[in-house]
């Protein structure tokens, strides 16, 4: 799986995160607190034929899993067409998506119709007023209803992610609420440690909390660390024999986080990013204009992979060229 895509540290990359837009309809405090603004001279996001050429090249490189992300991927008018197109490629065994769940209760049939294999939904808290405060939108009920509808229709692979935020959702009441939620719904839930990006230093200083507080909570409640699946990447997963569901932690500031990195990112404008916090991107777009350019595309990606560094050096405050995660596909 992904063997052709191997870096100089022996890490392989069966998994690509593909952003299809930087636009978002939420205003999460740590990401786009003032919403999305289109810059001048915007080249536009990859169109569906550029995406098709890209996915064909990635397939040739042994990529078998694609996560579609953004910005908010569902804001694209052709979002469901893009999903169906990727799913139609025989090399892509797993198509997954990360969404904020906007209008999820109205979109479940459309999601299922794409053949999507997994849906990650970002919900920072189950407390409605806090959710509104964090995202700028009072939409928690429709997201939770959407999850229920998907499950009632037999769709199992739903994961919920939350960013851990000091004095907002880092307390026992919040952790207990998630424990009950995942047990009732048999869902996997993960906290992601807040990451510093180019734009959010003040927010980061105020709200960053170590994932240790959550790990300590779950360890005292009898959750046990389980082995990670090959395509899990740097998440630590926990199970509890008395409860359904799974907890997880993504702690980018922890020692050895980068050792298990299996992620490459491609931005909505067609730049390959070797690391979320790297200092350069490689423009693939010029090789996405014609299916005949596939070999050149493949060669370029292989060459670039040799430059993937061992670590992000985020702990040194090095945020690279990422102003916020909506710009690179978090
Ligand atoms: N809009 C979609 C969503 O929110 O799920 C997809 C894109 S969003 C950039 C992907 C994930 O990145 C979300 O789970 C979000 O919470 C997370 N994220 C955004 N900024 C972050 C930051 N500074 N640190 C940690 N996670 C972040
Ligand atoms: Fe939008 Fe996702 Fe960023 Fe929130 S985290 S502002 S939903 S892109």
Walk me through this protein's architecture:
By secondary structure, the protein is of the alpha/beta class. The protein has one domain: Aldolase class I (TIM Barrel, Alpha-Beta Barrel). It contains nine helices and twelve strands. A twelve-stranded mixed sheet has the order 7-8-9-6-5-4-3-2-1-10-11-12, with helices on one face. Helix 1 links the parallel strand 1 and strand 2. It is globular and about 55 Å long. The model has no long low-confidence stretch (mean pLDDT 89). The structure holds S-adenosylmethionine and iron/sulfur cluster (SF4). S-adenosylmethionine binds next to strand 3 and strand 5.
Notable traits:
330 residues; alpha/beta; TIM Barrel; twelve-stranded mixed β-sheet; 9 helices; binds S-adenosylmethionine; binds iron/sulfur cluster
